[in-house]
Design goal:
This protein is α/β, with parallel strands linked by helices and 288 residues long. It is built from nine helices and 13 strands. InterPro entries: AAA+_ATPase, ABC_transporter-like_ATP-bd, ABC_Transporter_VariousFunc, P-loop_NTPase.
Length: 288
């Protein structure tokens, strides 16, 4: 199985934040979700992949090469940003005329089809689009040049639930082409429960894990039980715990160990990605 992205020991420091030895890969032909709380470093990592931010150390390989050495590779990437890079006073038609020549594989028919699907008019000006509509326009551009890699920073942010679901279906259709790969960041982990094959979880500038979603959901387990169980020396089994007046719920990173301790005396359940993110980020600090 080949990798479209390989990140090896990437570091970058700002005054108040640093990415520390980030390491992961993105498999060709799959949907990879990049999750993490606000400020985890997801956008910075995506910008590093796009060669818009230069790391201070480590290696970034896209399609086996470096975008710095071969900027032409960008044509093969459909990038969707959570920032607006378009000219506010231009109409979508003029914006399209400006963007199209940058791409050898630009497909006007596909672009028109996406605008219709997203209910956008070419006559509208960028400045009159809502946040969700701008995101749709950005998606239409990214999808209209037959990119092999879609790299999207929070593409579902600002979208209503109906369109969010439509977008996820659309990404599901795109990925049927096994030569395409999709990476998107989100903190709406429900989006990924449905369609992601791989999950990269970042927290405070580090990768917590990068694995197939199924493996992650099998490895972790939620434990729910009465408070009396906490009198036993069991807290070290958990990465995070939430205690109520009578009971607790906690996330354990090793299902087998949790089963050994809690089988028969507590409830063991498969976590959601949201559970994993919440308990890992909050650790033992959360109380009800
Ligand atoms: N150019 C920069 N100069 C200084 N600090 C920066 C710069 N870019 C990002 N940061 C800091 O790096 C941290 C990570 O930001 P980043 O946008 O990568 O996080 P994120 O995981 O995408 O968060 P969110 O989900 O809120 O978008 C933040 O604390 C941010 O303030």
């Amino acid at each position: 199985m080949s990798n479209v992205v390989e990140i090896r020991g990437v570091s970058k420091s700002f005054e108040q934040f640093s990415l520390d030895q980030v390491q992961f890969e993105v498999k060709k032909g799959f949907i990879t979700g990049l999750i993490g709380p606000n400020g985890a470093g997801k956008s910075t990592m995506i910008k590093i992949m796009m060669d818009m931010v230069r790391p201070s150390g480590g290696e970034v390989r896209i399609f086996g090469s470096s975008l710095t050495e071969d900027p032409g590779l960008k044509e093969r990437i459909g990038y969707v940003s959570d920032e607006n890079y378009y000219y506010e006073n231009m109409t979508l038609r003029n914006m399209r005329k400006m963007i199209a020549p940058f791409y050898k594989n630009w497909d006007n028919a596909a672009f028109t089809r996406y605008l219709e699907m997203f209910e956008l008019s070419e006559k509208s000006k960028i400045k009159n689009l809502s946040r969700g509509m701008k995101m749709k326009f950005s998606l239409a551009v990214a999808l209209s040049h037959h990119a092999e890699l879609l790299l999207m920073d929070e593409p579902t942010a600002g979208l209503d639930p109906v369109f969010r679901r439509e977008l996820l279906d659309l990404l599901g259709e795109e990925i049927l082409d096994e030569n395409k790969s999709i990476v998107f960041s989100t903190h709406i982990t429900n989006d990924l429960d449905r369609i992601a094959d791989y999950i990269i979880f970042m927290n405070r500038g580090k990768v917590v894990f990068s694995d197939s979603k199924d493996e992650v959901l099998e490895r972790y387990v939620m434990v729910k039980g009465g408070r009396e169980l906490l009198d036993m020396d069991v807290r070290q089994v958990f990465v995070g715990i939430r205690e109520g007046a009578h009971g607790f719920e906690a996330l354990a990173p090793d299902r087998r160990e949790a089963e050994r301790v809690f089988q028969g005396i507590a409830l063991l359940e498969t976590p959601t990605l949201e559970d994993i993110m919440y308990f890992t980020v909050k650790g033992g600090k959360a109380h009800v």
